[in-house]
Automatic annotation (TrEMBL):
PANTHER family: N-ACETYLTRANSFERASE EIS. Residues 201-231 are annotated as: Disordered. It comes from Gehongia tenuis. Residues 1-141 form the N-acetyltransferase domain. Residues 209-231 have a biased composition (Gly residues). GO terms for molecular function: aminoglycoside N-acetyltransferase activity. One of its GO terms (biological process) is aminoglycoside antibiotic catabolic process. This is GNAT family N-acetyltransferase.
Length: 408
């Protein structure tokens, strides 16, 4: 078996394997591979000239503790069924991690078909969200004043609303116009619709939304707008959805604040003559039951995105965390990435935290998935200890837990 980077010449086989394993049609394959595939954009396992397994990389910027980090989203992890059980995926994942490390990628996200399957490779679920599902008659939310919905408002408007939403969460993809176009294109392929919430009574023709005021995804600055009553952005939210025989199914629900959420829920409820139910997903928010006559039984907690530190030293440096009050040592267990498996000393360099290999007795010990949770802020040391994922002591990196949410 030969493991090597994928090239343009491998594209027909990559598409064929993806199509079989994920049952996507040619239109989607044209969209995904036409948008993201390039030489070196993944790792393939070959027997002779035959591709038997692959891992693809989708380049994104990932928001972690308010900073924009370069990331590669692992997707299209697939092996022909007749070749499974022979360690192909294990070899692919090892090669993928080594390739990402060589590129300087500090953290890798993925969206799992099975969390337990990817935990064996060091990934951990950090972004859990809620699936909402109910009869439309149970939604009692009312739209706010001075706002209206605009159908198909165009990429700039959707992107502005997305940025106002994304600044509130860790682990989200910081989209640019190319990525927003891809999401909207995929939604259209599924027969979906797009509607955005325009605030302030400002006239804005379709497609004229102007990004800005919601943070620059290229700088790592979260931005300062999108709060209730204080947003300078007229585009305050959107829905990507489609109407099916089972009801209104929402692909993506984005809102700048709780008032915008109420308006989006009211929009769903207005489909009472077309559908009976709605299904959507969203992060946990304060007063989630607000907007429903009786919110019991509507929301189900769902594990969503998984993340993994690719390189301990590079990830700590990329986050530029404040220098710790005192140096501390930590044993990280990582059987899949030997460069991470060992004791590290965390101290300060020029006012920033740094991590270096050490030959000292560690104060604490944890696996790479738990370390990822600690570094990204998805769980506190106390929570990791209570879950049996941390032995010994570990200082807090911040006083507040980071609310995580997955977008892709």
């Amino acid at each position: 078996m030969n493991i090597r980077p994928l090239t343009e010449g491998d594209l027909p086989q990559c598409r064929s394997l993806w199509s079989y394993c994920f049952q996507d049609d040619e239109a989607f394959l044209d969209l995904y591979f036409g948008t993201y595939f390039e030489d070196g954009g993944g790792i393939g396992a070959f027997e002779g000239d035959e591709l038997i397994g692959q891992v693809l990389f989708t380049p994104y910027r990932l928001q972690v503790r308010g900073r924009a980090l370069p990331a590669k989203f692992l997707c299209g992890v697939s092996v022909w069924p007749e070749r499974r059980g022979g360690g192909v995926t294990t070899k692919l994942m090892a090669a993928a991690l080594a390739a990402l490390r060589a590129e300087g990628v500090p953290i890798a996200p993925l969206s799992p078909f099975s969390p337990d399957f990817y935990r064996r490779y060091g990934f951990e679920v950090l972004a859990s969200g809620y699936q909402g599902a109910c009869e439309l008659s149970r939604i009692t939310a009312r739209p706010g004043g001075g706002e209206r919905f605009v159908r198909d408002p165009g990429t700039p408007a959707m992107l502005q609303a997305y940025r106002a939403f994304a600044k509130n969460y860790g682990g989200v993809i910081l989209r640019d116009e190319k990525e927003m176009d891809y999401v909207m294109g995929d939604n259209a392929l599924e027969g979906g619709s797009a509607v955005a919430l325009l605030r302030g009574g400002r006239e804005a023709p379709a497609g004229s939304g102007t990004p800005g005021g919601s943070g620059d995804p290229g700088t790592g600055t979260p931005g300062g707008s999108g709060t209730s009553g204080g947003s300078g952005d007229p585009w305050a939210g959107y829905l990507l959805y489609r109407i099916t025989p089972e009801g209104v199914r929402v692909r993506e629900m984005v809102y700048a604040d709780p008032l915008a959420r109420q308006s989006l829920l009211a929009f769903l409820a207005s489909h009472y003559s077309t559908a009976k139910r709605a299904v959507w997903r969203e992060p946990g928010v304060a007063m989630m039951d607000q907007g429903f006559g009786d919110g019991r039984g509507i929301f189900t907690l769902q594990p969503e995105g998984m993340y993994r530190v690719v390189d301990v030293e590079k990830a700590v440096a990329a986050l530029a965390l404040p220098e710790p009050e005192r140096p501390f040592t930590l044993r990280v267990r990582d059987s899949r990435a030997p460069w991470n498996d060992g004791v590290f000393r965390f101290s300060g360099e020029k006012g920033r935290m740094s991590a270096r290999p050490a030959y000292e007795k560690p104060e604490g010990e944890l696996d790479i998935g738990a370390f990822t949770a600690y570094l990204m802020g998805g769980f506190t040391p106390a929570e990791l200890r209570a879950a049996g994922r941390l032995r010994g002591g570990l200082p807090e990196l911040s006083r507040e837990r980071v609310f995580m949410w997955e977008t892709y």
